[in-house]
């Protein structure tokens, strides 16, 4: 589970970069039209609503009126992975009840935390960035299915997705890059760890497997990922696997 943990650290790097951003003139897109961090404003608003039973009751009525069932606002916490992204996602879903709630006269002291249209837009951009590592964590934290074979393909897809977002969101390039450098360096290191490569491979010398206790973790995947995404590494993986099979065969015959 070290990879999901690495993704959690990546999220924290992005969140720190967001906290250090300068808003207003000089930025691109909606960032030029706001003067504060919308995540911080949202967090304070949610805390204020949840801390009062009366406010919670009024807000719950607004949610019902919007036909959103019994959904509640969620707070982010440091000990829960991806909690900031989850908080933002829920707030976006409850955007209409939030706006309706803040229009009430009794909520005047909270109206300073009301997000403008541009702040909601920026919040959605942040959500799109943070949701990528969250999806990666979910994929590799499955309890019932071995996921070691998914690590390299998923990690590669994750990095590619963030690079694409940098192109699509030039105003967010530095925010993403704050974590991307570290992750790319880490990926280059794990690319040559045998365990992750064995998990995706299947030797074409299958007959040798009967002589060894070696278990192929994912025979369906075989070497297809390397053929499509990293053909230069294909021969290295084949040789690595064959060497391991040969070594295990020798151990089996000598025991």
TrEMBL record:
UniProt keyword annotations, A-Z: Metal-binding, Nucleus, Zinc, Zinc-finger
Principal subcellular localization: nucleus
Any GO molecular function: zinc ion binding
A single GO cellular-component term on record: nucleus
InterPro entries: RNaseH-like_sf, ZnF_BED_domain_contain
Subcellular compartments: Nucleus
PANTHER family: ZINC FINGER BED DOMAIN-CONTAINING PROTEIN 39, ZINC FINGER BED DOMAIN-CONTAINING PROTEIN 4
Protein name: hAT-like transposase RNase-H fold domain-containing protein
């Amino acid at each position: 589970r070290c990879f999901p943990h690495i993704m959690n650290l990546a999220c924290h790097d992005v969140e720190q970069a967001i906290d250090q951003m300068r808003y207003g003139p000089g930025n691109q897109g909606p960032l030029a039209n706001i003067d504060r961090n919308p995540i911080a404003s949202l967090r304070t608003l949610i805390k204020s609503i949840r801390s009062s039973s009366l406010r919670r009751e009024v807000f719950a009525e607004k949610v019902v009126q919007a036909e959103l069932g019994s959904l509640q606002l969620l707070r982010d916490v440091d000990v829960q992975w991806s909690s900031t992204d989850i908080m933002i996602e829920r707030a976006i879903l409850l955007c209409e009840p939030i706006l309706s709630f803040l229009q009430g006269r009794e909520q005047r002291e909270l109206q300073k935390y009301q997000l403008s249209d541009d702040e909601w837009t920026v919040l959605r951009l942040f959500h799109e960035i943070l949701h990528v590592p969250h999806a990666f964590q979910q994929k590799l934290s499955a309890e019932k299915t071995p996921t070691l074979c998914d690590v390299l393909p998923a990690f590669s897809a994750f990095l590619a997705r963030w690079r694409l977002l940098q192109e699509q969101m030039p105003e967010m390039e530095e925010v993403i890059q704050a974590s991307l450098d570290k992750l790319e360096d880490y990926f280059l290191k794990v690319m040559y760890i045998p365990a992750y490569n064995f998990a995706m491979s299947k030797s074409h010398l299958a007959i040798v497997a009967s002589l060894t206790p070696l278990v192929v973790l994912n025979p369906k995947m075989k070497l297809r990922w390397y053929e499509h995404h990293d053909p230069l590494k294909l021969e290295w993986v084949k040789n690595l696997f064959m060497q391991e099979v040969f070594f295990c065969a020798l151990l089996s015959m000598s025991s």
